[in-house]
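User: structure tokens for this one?
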Amino acid sequence: MSWLVTGGAGYIGAHVVRALAAAGLSPVVIDDLSSGHAGFVPAGVPFVHGTILNRGLVESTLREHDVDGVIHVAGFKYAGVSVQRPLHTYAQNVEGTRIVLEAMAAAGVTNIVFSSSAAVYGTPDVPLVTEDLPKRPASPYGESKLIGEWLIADQARATTDSDAPLRHTSLRYFNVVGSADPSVYDTSPHNLFPIVFEKLIAGETPRINGDDYDTPDGTNVRDYVHVGDIAAAHVVAAQRLAAGEPVEAAYNLGSQNGLSVKEIMDAMARVTGVSFTAEIGPRRPGDPDRIVATGELAARDLDWQMRYTVDEMVRTGWEARRAAPA
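Assistant:
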């Protein structure tokens, strides 16, 4: 059984590829390397260098490798930057998803796991985010992910009575951290863990944006989930789709409890051995006090678990970053 991973040379996608291979499923990767790295693709895994905006390339890849399903991870993932680049964001995330679905229909591929985002919820004012919470995305990125979910659901409805009905699920996740393979690490310039790691490597002091929020220690509380757990959930979702087992339209891959930015900083100092006291900067506009999601549905259906402590999240991410080529 073969599965195409779009964006499979990226931080999350490369972990999904490894998890698929470990489960005995044959991964195939397509990636334009705009943010991914060819070196993240394991030896022996077929790698197609190209964009998902090329419908012919996607379709030929699906046919050539006799693909059974798609795990659609590729996309432009920077919420803040999407405000300045909405057209680019929509082209990559909305048009890209439409083209993937079109190529799947032409090639007769009927299973898709969509990597969505907690950004579809915007800034909810409830203590625990559930899947049925109203969707109020606050950025073009969040909007594009929600539209991607709509596209997939619409295509599934349109093919319900056909010979090849589309089966699908969307996985909404939050702050993905750590590493499950020392050769793969987060290279995003916008995520907290790599920002802190680069500061520490450069001998600089990390900063916390605001310490006067309505939380126990005054800093934002967020879901931080390990990339190995995220990858494992994608594989179980793929297996359930391929087996014809029931799945929900969407699942939150949430931690249930969350961690504060100060707790992350304390773990960073503790695990890396680099002693520091984070600088306190001003709040960022629009940052809510707390966004944490339940993972109950995913635990029920996708064997979703938080298998890593905060120290293990930091340790695995730090070790992978330190092992990276200079």
